[in-house]
TrEMBL record:
Domain IclR-ED: start-end pairs: 72-250
Cross-referenced PANTHER family: HELIX-TURN-HELIX TRANSCRIPTIONAL REGULATOR, ICLR FAMILY, HTH-TYPE TRANSCRIPTIONAL REPRESSOR ALLR
Record flagged with keyword Transcription: yes
Record-given protein name: IclR family transcriptional regulator
Sorted UniProt keywords: DNA-binding, Transcription, Transcription regulation
Domain HTH iclR-type per the UniProt entry, residue ranges: 10-71
Organism of origin: Dactylosporangium cerinum
């Protein structure tokens, strides 16, 4: 469960982080009772911490009584090196790719067993998109996620393969099938999905390399259907990813 810290004697900081950690992609607004349950803290403690976090701008409280992450957390998060450095260096290449394809473009990194989206340039609005900058999604059901999973340490791959869950009827949830896909991604240098995260959306993604070998991010495009455009999109992604990699090396 997100943010669970129920050990007696835990510090105020750890309890505050438990409250903040209760939020995720599927739980963006929480009532006080839900916040306490997901944080693993007593209701009275959660109420006090939530009030202090609201006063500090880390949380906002809506008229409905639900709590959401405050702007101060987002603005502070943007100062993290993975956000500022990679995001800023990649920005020109992302915009060039977006201009060339008019499709939704993603830049993402792996955070544990999830994808963390650093940037999203919104493309054709007829394609359903659930991602957002700063949001997290499963590794196994997204194009950028599969690229990152294919190049993740063996223990991370094993953890993901042992806990696959279905997001749509087309999500790959059989470990041998996904393992074979990951091997193919490492061999071919790109990943694809079709309706695995959202019905009506397909994706293609490639790794971003530093020093020619270290995978530091994934660059992806989301369209309605890949079809005959797959080769063209892969080529465009590779050019952009190589440009980002050269900038990182410089």
């Amino acid at each position: 469960m997100a943010g669970r810290v129920s050990t007696p004697g835990s510090s105020v900081v750890s309890r505050a982080f438990a409250v903040l950690g209760a939020f995720d992609e599927r739980h963006r607004a929480l009532t006080l009772s839900d916040l306490a349950r997901r944080a693993g803290l007593p209701l009275t403690t959660t109420h006090r911490l939530a009030a202090e976090l609201v006063a500090a701008g880390a949380l906002d409280r809506r008229e409905s009584g639900q709590y959401v992450v405050g702007r101060r957390i987002w603005s502070t998060g943007l100062l993290a090196p993975v956000q500022t450095g990679l995001r800023e260096l990649a920005s020109p290449f992302l915009h060039d790719l977006f201009a060339a394809t008019l499709a939704t473009v993603h830049l993402a990194v792996r955070e544990g067993t999830q994808v963390l989206y650093l940037e999203r340039l919104r493309g054709n609005e007829s394609v359903p998109i659930v991602s957002r900058a700063g949001g997290r999604l499963p590794l196994h059901s997204t194009g950028v996620g599969k690229v990152l999973l294919a190049h993740a340490p063996p223990e991370v791959r094993a953890e993901v393969l042992a806990s696959l869950h279905r997001v749509t009827p087309f999500t790959v949830v059989r470990p041998p099938v996904l393992a074979a896909q990951l091997e193919r991604i490492r061999r071919d240098g790109y990943a694809t999905t079709a309706d695995e995260m959202t019905l009506g959306a397909s994706s293609v993604a490639v790794p971003v390399l530093r020093g020619g070998t270290e995978v530091v991010a994934a660059l992806g495009i989301v369209v309605a259907r890949l079809g005959r455009d797959r080769r063209r999109l892969v080529a465009g992604l590779r050019v952009a990813a190589q440009g980002i990699g050269r900038t990182l090396d410089g």
